[in-house]
Write a structure and sequence with these properties.
Negatively regulates transcription of bacterial ribonucleotide reductase nrd genes and operons by binding to NrdR-boxes. This protein is 44% helix and 18% strand. The chain has 5 helices and 6 strands; from the N terminus they run E-E-E-E-E-H-H-E-H-H-H. The chain has helices at 60-70, 78-93, 102-116, 118-128, 134-152; strands at residues 12-18, 24-30, 37-43, 47-49, 55-57, 99-101.
């Protein structure tokens, strides 16, 4: 790390702290030549690989936008959407890879959205999984009902009722 004051090519880390949201590290550094201190922020970059093969930086705002459309007209608050987007980002980051497929981002959205609102979940799943017919919707609804009934009875969720 070059010193921003004297351009010396080295510096010493004096203190390191995680930021409030835990997505970056704040480091206090000191230059061994001029003895001045400065702060750096380090964040791990997360890249999404789209179906076309192009890449773009992960955007929590883009996740929010897609989920917001699915939740339009539903009793879901902006705070709940923000928490969902944070859960999605955390799930993706815990995978430990710098690049993630766009498909994996969609999969990460499905489970927390199902917990938040079943109708919004069906809307999102219908676009994300390209439902072609009423039978696709019926199968998804049947699966949701089976999971809800199993949960109400205190039974384990059937294996066929895994996320869409």
């Amino acid at each position: 790390m070059h010193c921003p004051f004297c351009r010396h090519p080295d510096s010493r880390v004096v203190d390191s702290r995680a930021t409030d949201d835990g997505t970056a590290i704040r480091r206090r550094r000191q230059c061994p030549q001029c003895q001045r201190r400065f702060t750096t922020m380090e964040a791990a970059s997360l890249t999404v690989v789209k179906r076309s093969g192009t890449t773009e930086p992960f955007s929590r705002e883009k996740v929010l936008s897609g989920v917001r459309k699915a939740c339009q007209g539903r009793p879901v608050t902006e705070d709940q959407l923000a928490v969902l987007a944070q859960q999605v980002e955390e799930a993706i980051r815990t995978a430990g890879t710098a690049e993630v497929e766009a498909h994996d981002v969609g999969v990460a959205v499905l489970a927390p959205l199902r917990e938040l609102d079943e109708v919004a979940y069906l809307r999102f799943a219908s676009v994300y999984q390209a439902f072609d017919s009423l039978e696709d919707f019926q199968a998804a609804i049947t699966q949701l009902r089976a999971e809800r009934d199993a949960a109400a009875a205190g039974e384990p969720v059937p294996a066929a009722a895994a996320p869409l």
